Amino acid sequence: MSQDLAKTALYQWHVDHQGRMVDFAGWSMPTQYTSIVEEHNATRQAATLFDVSHMGRFYFTGSDVEAFLDNLATRKVIGMKLGAIRYSLVTDENGGILDDVLIYRLEELDGSPFYAMVVNASNREKIAAWIESHLSDDLDVHFEDHTVVTSMIAVQGPLANGLVTQEFGFNPDDLKYYTGTVVEIAGHRAIVSRTGYTGEDGCEISIANEAATTVWEAILAAGQEKGVMAAGLGARDTLRLEAAMPLYGHELSEEITPVQAGLGFAVNLKERQFIGSVPIAKAKEENNAPVRVGFALEGRRVARQGYPIIDNEGKAIGEVTSGTFSPTLEKAIGMAYVPAEFSAEGTALTIDLRGKRANATVVSLPFYSRK
Amino acid sequence: MKQEDLLFTQTHEWLHLSEEDGQKVATVGLTDFALKQLNDLVFVDLPETGRTLAAGESFGEIESVKSVSDIYSPVGGEIVDSNTSLSENLDRLSNDAYGDGWLIKVNVTDDSSLSEMMSFADYQKQCEEEG
Fold first, then answer.
1. Do residues A320 and A204 both lie within one domain?
2. What are phi and psi of A349, to 5 degrees?
3. How does strand A188-193 pair with strand B68-72?
4. Which residues of A touch chain B, with CB atoms under 8 Å apart?
5. What pLDDT digit, counting tens, does each position of A63-112 carry?
6. Which one, of A273, A363, A351, lies nearest residue A326 by Cα?
7. Within a 10 A sphere around the Cβ of A129, how many other Cβ atoms?
């Protein structure tokens, strides 16, 4: 593996525990330790830990931050309550999606206010440059990238919050879904949020690098007998796909508008303007672009990103953006963009799987939601 | 089959040569290393018997949760047997790669690429490098 890949504070732990390391957006990250299916099922049935330190963590202070971020985000930042976390998109002037992000309004232990933003690892440099290009001397906005000095651990699954409570005396269940707070964990200041990317309940903990392995091992040890284990990026992908959460580079790109992506809920056009709001409003009105759908396939073959969806004459009418064999449903599932007339639940689709045609049916999203 | 008696390709197929009534027959499979790397198998697609393969031609696909890969025949010839029941018994493939997990048998007419195949020792070295 290339020597210049970035390493998280948990890198050595991953290597020592048979993590299969790959280059992910310039970071050396584990795809799996045992098996994707085993780690996937452990998340649904017990809990797992994911090292998500590769994700970009941005930190903002200053009196103009609220208005500054509001102008960059498809959802309102102005008026966010203390502790609120909002899923939002960052769009360019054409309404194309630069990234999907989480925006946090929090305060430090001493009460000083700040905003945080978590961005995809693959878009970190692009979004940092985008933010910097919109800073100016007459704005009181101070922006720092905390990615390499902090770690981020996602604890996901029905046992997740109980284990965190048991180990650190702070109960993430006290937070409403999609809120967060700053607390002291293992002697360090940490951001704990009730968020995740698996379709399960759980939390995410951002903490100084020197505390990462301690926190990771404590939660793991507390849950080991109950089937809690570390999980890699492979399970992270199958879990988010079952939960129908979009992934940048798959369902989202600069060529896709939020309207197409079915992310209308993540766009607030009401009485406000942000970068990209005018073209997004226009796209919403025209409403003629291909839309994101979920599908289930007959048979065990998997339709993967880029496979064409074809009509009776074999002409491509759409494209698969993500596909996998769902460990929970035990069938092949995926997401795709198709013209609106093919998007109704129950519509039959034909997908070209490397030269072989397979029958698929449009199904409602998500594929999985927890009880 | 003993791994020491097999030949290996860079793309992780193994080959066993035998002779039946003067006809060279090659049994082809996927290595244990490859199957462990794939892990989480969901599908294997194998050809019908009777098809004629060129040396180096893809004859099937193996699919895991994460990826799909072609399977190549190191030799040319007619497929005389195909272990198609594996698609219903993927455990047999992952648990016994060099035995019950064999994929196809070929009546060899082109064995010119055998000289490019690796011994078990050389293949092990490749696996260590791929780690």
1. no
2. -120, 150
3. unpaired
4. 31-32, 35-37, 234, 238, 299-302, 304, 324-325, 327, 332, 354
5. 999 999 999 999 999 999 999 999 999 999 999 999 999 999 999 999 99
6. A363
7. 10
Residues A61, A175, A116: CA angle, nearest 5 degrees: 20
The CATH number given to whatever domain includes residue A217 is: 3.30.1360.120
Residues of A in contact with B43 (CB under 8 A): 299-302, 325
Domains in chain B, please, with CATH?
3-112 (2.40.50.100)
The interaxial angle of helices A65-72 and A124-134, nearest 10 deg, is 120
A328: containing domain: 290-363
Tally of structural domains, chain A: 2
Does residue A285 fall inside a structural domain? no
- Spatial distance between the Cα atoms of A331 and A370, rounded to a whole number of angstroms: 18
Does the residue A65 lie in any domain?
A: no
Do the chains contact at A327 and B68, CB–CB below 8 Å? no
> CB neighbours of A265 closer than 8 A, spacing ≥ 6?
none
Residue that has been written with the tokens 């293949």 in this structure:
B123
pLDDT of residue A28: 97
What ipTM describes this predicted complex? 0.83
